[in-house]
Design brief:
- The chain is an alpha+beta fold.
- The chain is about 35% helix and about 15% strand.
- The chain has 2 domains: about 190 residues, Alpha-Beta Plaits; about 45 residues, no CATH class.
- The protein contains 7 helices and 5 strands; from the N terminus they run αβαββαββαααα.
- It has a 5-stranded antiparallel β-sheet, with helices on both faces.
- A hairpin with a 4-residue loop joins strand 2 and strand 3.
- The radius of gyration is 40 Å and the shape is rod-shaped.
């Protein structure tokens, strides 16, 4: 292998020990069991460096991750190439890239973003082409580029000739792969903050029954107060009404006697 192949395999190939033996119909970026050591986040149509620069800086400052490699695809896009020291599952890499998009690129239309691996099945999204190489549509060259030159390619994200093996190998030699413990901390930091539970509503106490102030000067007044108390139990009000019947009858009889005295 030449120096560029060596560096590319060191960082991105799923099984670097078999880098020279891979099937030409199968991307070396995807292992036989669905494992990957590479994740690519692409912003296209148009290529804009500023949004991806926020990701490039953020993963270093906020997540303590090594800087990903920066690339132009030879046609219409910038790319960030992330590398894992040890393979991770396809789904794990997809969730990581999606979380980066949600955190740093929430204002970018989804149709301008392409992640590999993606959240779908392993075969849903083809693996990105190896870099450097002529783009199949434009014929221009893709390349890895230095961070301080990234903004220069916003209008033309390509090179018009082969960038050279030695120069590309030198750029990749400065890239570090994510160690497992560092990646685990980044995963935890990307988890959404737990939602605070809603405060429990304080139950409204039932109104105090009014029976404690019943008049007690006469039995009739007491029973009438109980019967008319809307907060008293129904059974108690019925009993009070029943008790009032003979009392009312007595009062009625007395009234008749007083109005019609015997002769």
């Amino acid at each position: 292998m030449n120096p560029l192949h060596t560096e590319f395999a060191r960082l991105f190939v799923a099984q670097p020990q078999h880098a020279l033996l891979h099937d030409a119909n199968h991307s070396p970026l995807l292992g036989p069991a669905g494992e990957v050591r590479c994740g690519v986040l692409e912003l296209a149509r148009p290529a804009q460096w500023d949004p991806l620069a926020a990701v490039w800086r953020g993963v270093q400052a906020d997540l303590d991750l090594p800087a990903p490699a920066i690339a132009i695809n030879g046609a219409d896009a910038y790319q960030l190439w992330f590398a894992w020291r040890h393979p991770v599952q396809h789904a794990t890499a997809a969730v990581f890239l999606k979380s980066l998009c949600q955190r740093y690129l929430a204002d970018v239309p989804a149709q301008r973003l392409r992640c590999w691996p993606s959240a779908g099945a392993e075969s849903d999204t083809p693996a990105p082409a190896q870099i450097p190489a002529p783009h199949p549509r434009s014929g221009q060259w893709s390349a890895f580029i230095a961070p301080d030159l990234a903004a220069v390619f916003a209008e033309e994200p390509w090179l018009d000739r082969d960038p050279g093996i030695e120069a590309q190998a030198l750029l990749l030699s400065r890239i570090e792969a994510m160690q497992p413990q560092v990646f685990a901390k980044a995963q935890a930091a990307l988890q959404p903050a737990p939602t605070a539970p809603l405060p429990m509503a304080t139950p409204t106490p039932p109104p105090e029954p009014q029976g404690t102030n019943y008049p007690a000067n006469t039995p009739t007044a007491f029973l009438q107060a109980v019967m008319q108390d809307p907060f008293a139990p129904l059974a108690l009000r019925v009993q009070a009404a029943a008790a009032l019947l003979p009392l009312n009858a007595v009062h009625a009889q007395r009234g008749d006697e007083e109005s019609n005295p015997p002769h």
